[in-house]
Amino acid sequence: MATTADIRNGMIIKLDNSLYSVVEFGQNKTARAAAKVWAKLKGVDNNRSIEHTWNSGDNIYPVRVERRPYQFLYKDDSGFNLMDTATFEQITFPENQIERPELYKDGQDCFILVNTETETPMSVELPPNVVLRVTYSEPGIKGDTATRTLKPATVETGATVMVPLFVDADELIRVDTKTGAYVERVKE
Questions:
Q1: φ, ψ (nearest 5 deg) of residue 22
Q2: Residue at which a domain ends, from 125, 154, 172
Q3: Which of 6, 40, 45, 168 could cross-link 2 (Cys pair, CB 3.0–4.6 Å)?
Q4: Last residue of a domain, one of 125, 151, 170
Q5: Quick one: 48 and 89 in the same domain?
Q6: φ, ψ at 101 (rounded to 5°)
Q7: Pair (70, 58) in one structural domain
Q8: Residues 23 and 38 in one domain
């Protein structure tokens, strides 16, 4: 059992018989009333996003979750097929439980979040950054570098990422998996 003082970003809690991940949290203090703790929650076992408020010191019910390493094999009609890197067992996930499905390429390392109480897989995550090859990008206009101007580029997975003008086709780039934004060029 934990209290509202233990809330952290990324923590998974049980609320109204559903599991939610804490996206953001804060505290509201007033001179006359007791402090309140608020949190923006994203559903782990459902697609809901909610905000919830507790009185300071109320009990919350955290769920112990393990991140297990897996490898993305391929996508077909049944969903995303992943392989446990330790036991080589395969599991299929529907696309709605995959975080940023447009950034997965064959052989990509990823993690499955598993509820340790029931041993049920909940969702699939990528590492913080992935390296992808740009397959198509319009050439940049010479001299148009005074501002941070971005252009669309298609990467090997088919996703479109906004990149700076100096990035050309057939270059490797690092992409942030939380936002889908360009981070930097990667040397081969």
A1: -80, 120
A2: 125
A3: 6
A4: 125
A5: no
A6: -60, -20
A7: no
A8: yes
User: What would the two tokens of residue 97 be?
Assistant: 């439980």
Q: How many domains does the chain have?
A: 3
Helix (H) or strand (E) holding 122: strand 120-125
96's tokens: 């709605």
22 to 33, 44, 67, 84: CA distances (angstroms): 25, 10, 16, 27
- Kindly give the confidence (pLDDT) of every residue in the chain, 188 residues in length, as a single tens digit, with 9 standing for 90 and above: 788 888 998 888 998 888 898 989 998 887 787 889 999 998 887 778 899 999 888 999 999 888 899 999 999 998 999 999 999 999 998 887 788 889 999 999 999 988 888 888 888 888 999 999 999 998 876 666 666 788 899 999 999 999 988 888 899 999 999 888 999 998 87
**DSSP for residue 98:** B
pTM over 0.70: yes
State CA 143 to chain mean position distance.
36
Task: Give me the residue label for tokens 């909610």.
Answer: 50
Tokens 């509202």 sit at which residue? 4
180: left (phi over 0), alpha (psi -120 to 50) or beta: left
Written as one letter, the residue type at 111 is F
CATH number at residue 151: 2.40.50.140
Q: Range of 170's domain?
A: 129-186
